[in-house]
């Protein structure tokens, strides 16, 4: 009875509003946006020692993510110490001068929080999520593990075995293997070409001295950003940073590894093939030199990548993806899947495609028509496919900022790599301005007749020689 009365009242209200609309303009009541008096903007402050503190404050948020983004990853290592950054990430939670491992874990669990870390080629990140009231405790924990980790010999030996097992697991993930080899060949004998985990012999040999040296050389205030996103006010986080991070060293010593990590790497047109007929499919990555985070063409590269698109034969929507390459590949059954990518670093990048196919006698056709699509982008791009790619890109970027952790990640990554943060509104406006002419000019400069790096793993006997593939980079229709 109550539900019928509610429905009746709602219907009456809607009819009365419809009647009134003839008298006054319709006003939106249910979907009026509520804006913060402060606005969700990024605020930054640099402390005396050079540490940057950045926040995106949301007064209505009940939780916060706080983390430290460090401008140092596997790229800051040497051949002998490759794997140290990732090893340190594992040891960070194994006890400090103030807290044992058990105390650290209990402290996080008792506040219902979450503490984690990850290492990439250029960054190391330590972050936590918790209620706003627990942010001071989280910042204290982050400062403790970054500045006072014990690095006990027994913990080092335990984690050595864990990392070796992790390395074995990574080697079973063919996409990880292909992309590691792609970096190794595109940036051969350069810091960016090294893997994040490091070679197994390094993992077995890393000592406490190498770990402490890495902290001393890289965990310095000028290369770190403390980020807060959610219900933590900027002034509060600055106060916590001054309390907990004021004793950080101001700047990094300019070691040989540091200087090499800051030198722009040379992209090398080359290939690596690992034939393994026990793998029933071919896994192939093709890439040209892409763009850095700071490059004026950064978003144009992403739009161009979105035009090439992604494809997965197992998905019900596979025949109707909309991009030309997926339609052609599906109708001719050339691949199981493909994924275009635009990976950026501080001074370079990789733009390309990752192909998986069990049509082993048609690998040449698959690569040929893929590169033919790349060539088309230099001269024949329609307005409709650019608009679709822009819509997909905006949706993927803006919809990904759906949590305090995602916002903190965006703020931290941008500040560490570019020194400033573009707001979602700025990004949307930049993408909106990209035209089909911009895409074609980008393709002419970056794709047409450019050297290509190739990484292929699995049943790749049917993949033709490098020169044949390189010649397809400048194909006239």
Automatic annotation (TrEMBL):
It catalyses: Release of N-terminal transit peptides from precursor proteins imported into the mitochondrion, typically with Arg in position P2. It is found in: Mitochondrion. Its EC number is 3.4.24.64. Residues 53-200 form the Peptidase M16 N-terminal domain. PROSITE patterns: INSULINASE. Keywords: Hydrolase, Metal-binding, Metalloprotease, Mitochondrion, Protease, Transit peptide, Zinc. It holds the Pfam family Peptidase_M16_C. Belongs to the peptidase M16 family. This is mitochondrial processing peptidase. The lineage of its organism: Eukaryota, Fungi, Dikarya, Ascomycota, Pezizomycotina.
